[in-house]
Write a structure and sequence with these properties.
CATH superfamily: Class I glutamine amidotransferase (GATase) domain
Strand content: 25-35%
Shape: globular
Helix content: 10-25%
Number of strands: 13
Distance between the termini: 38 Å
Bound molecules: zinc ion
CATH architecture: 3-Layer(aba) Sandwich
Strand order of the largest sheet: 2-1-3-4-13-12-11-8-9
CATH class: Alpha Beta
Radius of gyration: 19 Å
CATH topology: Rossmann fold
Number of domains: 1
Structural class: alpha/beta
Length: 284
């Protein structure tokens, strides 16, 4: 009995140690992070390959004393849009990613930190916060290729929320391998006119931002992969609210994007019930 108990304990701790360590950061956001963070955590716990902690930053300027232990994790997922982190925390984060850590930016996390150069290089494109042509180009799809558009103008906008079709743009990328060429995403805010350094950005998926919904009339990059030093960034511009984070397409691409950012590989199979381009699907 005792030996069996000991053995099962050893097995348990070994499997826990094998899990990919994920840190979600939140605490400030113009979105309802108190509701969406628990859903992000649940989505990531479902495949059984991640262990997920949350570090909630204090409000306002008190974030200056906040010092998360990035280096104890394989990947950091940000659901944070707020006051600038302290110079020490910024430096620690840059070191974490450039030395091989993963970073995943969710929705308004790409509104954060217009003044932080390295952060903008990591996310490739960002919005709001005074971003404009000085922040970098727009990425525009022309004749099947993503091109840099340096036209002056604001960075970051969105129209009314609606369901929209996501189109795969990099089917060979590990995050996208096995996903359909297009799928219907649940009601979300479709960010448009993001701009930033846009260096080495692989657009994984985009969506048409319709003018009749107050959009740009352009294909907008919404899922992106960006190398930063030895690290990997998965930029996910989706996930405004509860409808969006309860989308099966959102959940599966998040699970795959977090694994890729952490390890450079994706071992998860695409579920048979992944949505097609005709109808969106809620998470089971
Ligand atoms: Zn939003």
């Amino acid at each position: 009995m005792k030996l069996l108990a000991l053995l099962s304990l050893v097995t348990l701790s070994a499997s826990a140690a094998d899990k990919i360590k994920v840190l979600i950061v939140d605490g400030q956001n113009n979105h309802d992070w108190r509701k969406t963070t628990p859903v992000l955590k649940q989505i990531l716990e479902e495949p059984g390959i991640f262990s997920v902690d949350v570090d909630t930053a204090p409000g306002g300027g008190a974030v200056a004393t906040w010092s998360p232990k990035f280096s104890e994790y394989a990947v950091v997922v940000s659901n944070y849009n707020g006051a600038l982190w302290s110079p020490e925390t910024q430096e620690k984060f840059e070191k974490f990613v450039s030395e091989g850590g993963g970073f995943v930016s969710i929705h308004a996390a790409d509104n954060s930190f217009p003044e932080w150069k390295a952060y903008n290089e990591m996310i490739g494109l960002g919005g709001w916060g005074g971003r404009n042509e000085k922040s970098g180009p727009y990425m525009r799809l022309r004749d099947g290729k993503w091109t840099m558009d340096t036209t002056p103008g604001a960075g970051g906008s969105h129209g009314a929320q609606h369901e929209f079709v996501m189109t795969t743009r990099a089917p060979e990328h590990p995050i996208m391998a096995g996903l359909p060429a297009a799928w219907m995403h649940r009601q979300d805010e479709l960010y448009n006119r993001l701009r930033g350094p846009a260096k080495n950005v692989t657009v994984l998926a985009s969506a048409m931002s319709p003018k009749e919904k107050g959009g740009s009339g352009e294909e907008e990059p919404l899922l992106m992969a960006i190398p930063y030093g030895k690290g990997r960034v998965f930029h996910n511009a989706l996930g405004h609210g509860m409808e969006a984070v309860h989308c099966q397409g959102f959940a599966v691409t998040l699970q795959r994007g977090v694994e890729w950012a952490a390890t450079g590989k994706v071992t998860q199979k695409v579920p048979a019930d992944f949505p097609d381009d005709k109808a969106s699907k809620s998470r089971p």
